[in-house]
Amino acid sequence: xxxxxxxxxxxxxxxxxxxxxxxxxxxxxxxxxxxxxxxxxxxxxxxxxxxxxxxxxxxxxxxxxxxxxxxxxxxxxxxxxxxxxxxxxxxxxxxxxxxxxxxxxxxxx
Length: 109
Fold this sequence. Notes:
Blueprint: H1 3-28, H2 35-41, H3 44-58, H4 69-85, H5 88-105
Helix pairs in contact: 4-5
């Protein structure tokens, strides 16, 4: 691709992103939102975080896309501790410690 094509794609994607956000924030940002929309928006972080983490757990680049037992175990411990203790920070800490131990045990660190 030429430099002009790359910059054209970047500018078009930037404009598209701006228009998508403006359609929500700029056009209806000063109006009260319906209760059902507010209820759905409360679940956005709960959906986004697993969506960002799942590909890193299931297809890590360090193992050429093959599932890694250390990462799978860390994800499992994180979910179990989160369900058991209902504490996000404790779940993240438990998963991080499990990942560190798993990577050390498999010689990846």
